Amino acid sequence: MLAGDKEGAKFHINQALVILLFFLLTPIPCIGWVWGVFMFVCWIMGLVAAINGEEKEVPLIGSIKLIK
Q: Is the four-CA dihedral 22, 23, 28, 32 of positive or negative sign?
C-alpha cells in the first residue's frame, strides 16, 4: 500500500485485497476447503503476475474493484 501511484501498484493491491476478502469465506463447511484451494491458486497466479510486471486479473473475482 505504500507504493501509492506507482505503475501498476494500485492494480496489484486491489487484486490482493479482493483475494484476501474472499479467502475469509473458507470456514464455510463443505465447500470452504474447495474455495480455499481456489483462493490459494488465485493468490499464486496474482503473485506470479506481479513478479512478472503483468496486470492479469485473477479468475472469477478479479474484476471487482475496491481501489479506484
A: positive
